[in-house]
Structures are given as structure tokens and as C-alpha cells.
Specification:
The protein has helices at 3-8, 14-21, 25-28, 33-48, 54-64, 77-90, 95-98, 102-112, 115-123, 157-162, 168-173, 184-202, 277-280, 353-357, and strands at residues 234-244, 252-257, 265-269, 284-288, 294-296, 299-301, 304-305, 307-309, 318-320, 332-335, 361-363, 369-372, 379-383, 398-399. With 400 residues, the chain is α+β, with helices and mostly antiparallel strands. It comes from Artomyces pyxidatus.
């Protein structure tokens, strides 16, 4: 099925909305063959399915959590069609109701604000009028840290012979129940193994662990080493929503897509007086993603936007550091050099890791972002796997 045939299945005025908003077939219906197939599939789905039911919205909400757009990382006809299909539902929702589907609400609000969508919608007024959202009463976003996976213990030979294997959850449930009697030889073997494990856990000098060796020494903290730039977790992000902070004139509150399953991060940045909000919308950027979340005038910020500040000071210019073209949200950003590899899970603010290495961040004569070792003067450019990150115009700028 072609894109035009799929669009023809849509009922007016939805079909007219999609037709009016799609003027570049080479992009609007997918840049690659894979994207084209997905766009057609979604348009066909919109023509067939009803997105008004709670079950359909729940499913769609799960699908949209890690996505800015429904296909690829750019606006397509599939987004226009899905927005139009959702419009009748969202135009009738109460404020308390759209909080129950946060990913769909965020997606709907983003798509309806796209210039091509608005232009087409206004030509069909009032069918697709702007739906206002008041997020002042929105429940705070909770970003859960995934629990570390526990290794399941291998079954003991004696237990394996006595009973069939059980799941780890059942084993935990049965741990408080007295085990079935075992043969005398088997019981002694189990008791001996328990004693050896206890000795290993106590870590006593000279005591033997179950495997016959001494208990292992505690692993050093991951931030125990001298601060180096690769401890900082830099990733490609894209601003999908931005507003001024309700209680601070100089702060923006952004929703930034870092390609995470948990959805966009809330980020607060002090750029109001330096970069107009119009130039911040939909911008690609580099984010510092392992800082400890900070409360900024009542709004918790979960990352930091990396900016280049002119060597002549803030008033002379501040720019967003730009990732390479064709980057995707969540792409890792590295420091050139074999010694700089994996970042820390979270920077400990007490150790001042970022503050220690930040003076070495700069832009070169080529405007490329880099970290210059203050001791050896070696230059380590900041890059994705594809290319180097840059500041649009600033040379010799400080990055922070």
C-alpha cells in the first residue's frame, strides 16, 4: 500500500489535515524504506482503530514513553494523523483526566504546536483548534532508579536430588519454612557449606570462603580515582517542550528527550536572558546526565544543558553545544582518547568532580568542543561515534 492510498482511507476532515500538513513526500512519509512502511502502517491503524477508549490510550501511552515522534526522530504524516485522531478525545478531557496519560498528553501537545500542523489545522478551523493544557497541578515526575539485578544462587547438588527445581520467588517464600529431612550425609554437607559461607561473609582474617579462598575485599567506590572528564555522562538530547519557570524570571523549565524508556527529563536552565525561547524550542543539545538531581526554585532538575560561554563573558554570548547532524536522542558522547571510556552512574557533589575538570572544557579554533588536560595540554575532542560536537560561532569559549 502506498502512503497516498493509506491517506485516502482517512475520513475528512482528518484526511484534509494530513494532506495540508504534508508538503514534502520525501520526508513527511518517511526518509527510509523502513520508516515509510511504519508511516503507512500507522496511518492505516488510525483509519481503522478507535483511540478514544481507555485501553487504547493506555497502550499508546506505553508506546510513546520513549518517543518524541511515532516513527523515527522527526515529524511525519503518521504524527499528523495520530494527532488528528486524538483531538476529539483531548478536546473534551478534564485537567485531571489527561494527567492519567502523561506520555500521550506530552506527545499531543508537542505535535499540535508544530508549525506545519498548526497551519493546516487553522485552515480547517474549528475542527482542530488548539487544546490548552494547564500543567500547574500536574503530579511531580518520579524517575525510578532500576534495582540492581540479583544473581540467583546455583542449586546445591543435595537439594537438586531431593526435590525438583523451584523458581527464585518460590524459594524466597519457602525460606522461612523448615526444610524436609535429608539423609545424614547430605545434612552434614549442607551444614558444612553453611559454615563456610558464614566465615566468608564475616571476612575474618585467615578464614576460608566456600570456594577455598579468602573472602574478597570490598570493591573500591567507582569515584575513588582522580577526577577525569569521562566520569561525566554526556548524551544527545532534544528539547520537546519548554516554558518559563513560574517562580523565577531567569529560568526555563524544559522537557528534554534523552532517548530513555522513562520518558523525557525535566531540566531547569538559567538561559532566559541569553537565548530567546523561540531559539530553544526543538533544539538539539548535549546534556550532562549524571549530576545529582537538584531542586531549582521548587522544580527538580534531572540534568544540565551544556553551553558554550564567550571568552568575553556571558553578555558577549551563550550558545547550546550542538551534537553532530543526524544524531538521535540518547546517543552517548565520548572524549577522544583510550583512557576515557565509561562515565560514573552519578557524580557525587561532595567530591566536586565536575567542578574540578570543568575549567578544561573549551572550544577550539575550529569551534569543536573539547577538554584540554591542564597538565599535559593534550586535547580530547568531545564527540559521538559519528562526529565532533561544536559551538555554532564561539572560539575559546568555556563549556558549562
Amino acid at each position: 500500500m502506498s502512503a497516498q492510498a493509506a491517506t485516502a482511507k482517512l475520513q475528512p476532515p482528518l484526511r484534509d489535515l494530513v494532506t495540508g500538513a504534508t508538503q514534502d513526500p520525501a520526508q513527511d512519509f518517511g526518509k527510509s524504506e523502513k520508516d515509510k512502511a511504519e508511516v503507512i502502517e500507522w496511518i492505516d491503524k488510525v483509519a481503522r482503530d478507535d483511540f478514544a477508549s481507555g485501553e487504547a490510550l493506555n497502550t499508546l501511552d506505553e508506546q510513546l514513553v520513549p518517543r518524541t515522534y511515532i516513527v523515527g526522530n522527526y515529524l511525519t504524516a503518521a504524527d499528523v494523523a495520530l494527532y488528528g485522531a486524538l483531538h476529539p478525545t483531548f478536546s473534551q478531557l478534564q485537567q485531571s483526566q489527561y494527567f492519567s496519560h502523561p506520555a500521550v498528553t506530552r506527545y499531543f501537545d508537542h505535535i499540535q504546536s508544530r508549525p506545519s500542523v498548526r497551519k493546516s489545522a487553522e485552515a480547517l478551523a474549528p475542527a482542530f483548534s488548539v487544546v490548552p493544557f494547564d500543567f500547574t497541578g500536574a503530579p511531580p515526575a518520579v524517575r525510578k532508579v532500576p534495582e540492581p539485578k540479583k544473581k540467583e544462587k546455583a542449586a546445591k547438588p543435595a537439594e537438586a536430588e531431593a526435590s525438583p527445581p523451584v523458581s527464585s520467588s518460590k524459594a524466597k517464600a519457602d525460606s522461612s519454612v523448615q526444610s524436609a529431612p535429608v539423609a545424614d550425609g547430605e545434612g552434614k554437607a549442607v551444614k558444612k557449606e553453611k559454615k563456610e559461607k558464614k566465615a566468608a561473609a564475616e571476612g575474618g582474617e585467615g578464614k576460608k570462603a566456600a570456594g577455598g579462598g579468602k573472602a574478597p575485599a570490598p570493591a573500591p567506590a567507582e569515584d575513588a580515582a582522580e577526577p577525569i572528564p569521562s566520569m561525566v555522562d554526556l548524551r544527545v538530547g532534544r528539547i520537546i517542550d519548554i516554558k518559563k519557570h513560574p517562580d523565577a524570571d531567569g529560568l526555563y523549565v524544559e522537557q528534554i528527550d534523552f532517548g530513555e524508556e522513562t520518558g523525557p527529563r525535566t531540566v531547569v536552565s538559567g538561559l532566559v536572558h541569553y537565548i530567546p525561547i523561540e531559539k530553544m524550542r526543538d533544539q538539539w543539545l548535549v546534556g550532562v546526565c549524571n549530576l545529582k538531581p537538584a531542586n531549582m526554585r521548587g522544580v527538580k532538575s534531572f540534568a544540565m544543558v551544556l553551553c558554550a560561554t564567550s571568552k568575553d563573558g556571558k553578555e558577549a554570548g551563550i550558545e547550546l553545544v550542538q551534537p553532530p547532524p543526524d544524531s538521535k536522542p540518547g546517543d552517548r558522547i565520548y572524549f577522544e582518547g583510550a583512557e576515557y571510556e565509561a562515565p560514573l552512574t552519578q557524580l557525587n557533589p561532595k567530591k566536586k568532580i565536575f567542578e574540578t575538570i570543568q575549567p578544561g572544557f573549551t572550544t577550539l579554533e575550529t569551534k569543536e568542543a573539547a577538554w584540554v588536560n591542564p597538565v599535559t595540554k593534550s586535547v580530547h575532542r568531545i564527540r559521538t561515534k559519528e562526529a565532533v560536537c561544536v559551538a555554532p560561532t564561539l572560539v575559546g569559549a568555556s563549556l558549562s
